[in-house]
Amino acid sequence: MSAYELRKNALVAAAAGQRREVEFPRKADGKPKYSSEVYGENVFTLKTMAKALPKPIFSSFLKQRRGRQNLDKATADSIAHAVRVWAMDRGATHYTHWFQPQTGSTAEKHDAFLSLLSTFTPGGEEVTPIDQFSGGQLLQSEPDASSFPSGGMRSTFEARGYTIWDTSSSMFLRTGPHGTAILYIPSVFISYNGDALDEKTGLLRSNEVLSRAACELVNLLEPEAHVSHVYTTLGTEQEFFLIDRTMYALRPDLKITGRTLVGQLPPRHQQLEDHYFGRIPGRVMRAISELELECLRLGIPVKTRHNEVAPAQFEVAPIFEEASVAVDHNLLTMDILHKVAHRHGLRALFHEKPFKGVNGSGKHCNWSIATDRGENLLDPTVRPETNYRFILFLLAALRALQQHAPLLRAAISSSSNEHRLGAQEAPPGIISAFLGDQLTEVLDAIEEDRTVKNFSVPQFQSIKVGGTVLDVKVAALPSIARDLTDRNRTSPFAFTGNKFEFRAVGSKQSPSFPVTVLNCAVTAAVTEITDALRAQKGAKPRLSDDDKLAVIRRFIAETKSVRFEGDNYSEAWVAEAARRGLPNIKTAPEAFTYLIADKHKRMLVDETGIFSEGELQSRYHILNERYAKDLAIEAETLQTIVGQEILPAALEYRKSLAESAAALKQVGVELSPEVETLNALAPLVKDMQAAHVALRTALAALTEHEGSDSNAHARRACESVAPAITRARDAADALEAAVADKFWPLPKYTELLLTI
Predict the structure, then answer these.
(1) Which CATH number is 192's domain given?
(2) Boundaries of each GS beta-grasp domain copy (predicted)?
(3) Is pLDDT of 14 > 90?
């Protein structure tokens, strides 16, 4: 069967549709269960644990969880027994320590609960099968660490590594084969020498240091508060594409690299702006509904679903949670979506830019800080100008950007995210913050020691969260509360009411490292502000308002350079940012160098202690190596597609035209249409051939220098391989427009984006 016939058959199959229905759980009386009744049913929650354990054992575990004591053997054994019984009663046959290596995804190794007990009798050995799970097995496991990225910290022969139960994240069940289940134990992953080999360890460390620094600041401002724990909250808006799985199977570039390396936009894509928030296609709705059901059972609070801007692009978003749990849940959501999409004949694409010319996908990380009393430290309240605690934590976030913006740029950098940053609702490489007119006015008024201007609409004086009320001027409609700020969709770091939205994080990226870096930078800023307040306070028993305002005014002035309220895509902002001294980091390899620059390394290693110097160097090398490898894989894939599919298709079409012209010539028919088409095709084929050779040359040069300095290798890939890929793509896309459809071997954008 020809490639064209495969394409058309796939199109017919997609049009026929694959319908899968999943019924929502029902009560005994046949009525559907409420979502709240399904929520968390497959999670070994603290409430479930409390019912299963003796009170002293549960109390001991809570103390360990709060960092007040180590988990002793008796407590671990009791928890292990309780969770095994709970899991096996629900069909579990295996357990796994689930962890987050530095691969951008998760990893797991399954072990059975089944053990064999040998007893020796006068008649010989007797073997009895038993189900067993000890406290030691719960607390840690030993996967092979040599086959995961280590950035040079470990040699291939140094295989031992450990996964250790993260007690801050609840264990849960996932469906296994043939109606069985698997117990998942969220874990960190460390080397034999205790070095972090994963994404999660750094995040947990950063949460702790930020908690200590923030508690110190809050209790200095409000000595009667007695805040003992502060935590970061996170809500991750996950964008993705869903395309027909059969179409996907016919695109080797999508299968291997996650993005289309060739392909022309269809005449209609997103330019009519009719897909965003439009009706969700039926097959997609069924898939997302099944995703939501599985998420509910795992205690993942998915709240929102909608069409995104590009055709075939969608988003789901959860309710905010503690950051480390939110990261676990985001990675689980992505994995579940992959599997659910497959069941519905779809394929989920998380690459930041799978289709050239339409919007890419991000993972907007909505970040805030809360106390153990449930107070959001970034809540402006009704009068933010007198809420000095809020102002100081707001300034800490701005100071973090001002001092360590290059680190945040490095944390979101990858070969895939480079395709997205700087256009189509993705922020640029200049890291700045958006506060909105009202908060900007509050800071300006405090700095200038004047009264804050009134932002209320004259006929409506009630205020919600410092905002105003809008009259819609339609009698049948109520007045609506206006938020404190608008939403600047071009800003990398925008304040959106009571949190910051870190919009630059890539859609397929784990949120762990970006949030870790953000936590660390804010910790350093909070510590600096606390030291300034202490110096201002001197020997006085407590801080006065004048003391607080003096420090606030200082940091307002010093952080003004990172505040920008305009269009971050504009050339005017590039010039203005340069005038302000803000770095404009255009490539990932350039961004990676800031990880080990003295200023930023000192903060990460010496001041906060989140990473050892070896761990930081390791991450630096892993990021550079991954970047170069990604581009090499793309180049090899494109080279194969061009050589084995696109060029042969173009030559076959040219041959068909030539044979047609020769046959027509014999019967004396006018040949100008065929000749003109052949003449137009010839230079395009020649360009494609030349681009193919250039791609092969660039790839060979990159391979030749492999093993050199990792950043130099990444820069070489950026400067030579990436342009060669772009040149080859442009030549291929020109051929796609010229070659007759029946000869084209790959599903086109029309079929990929508009067939679901």
Answers:
(1) 3.10.20.70
(2) 93-194
(3) no
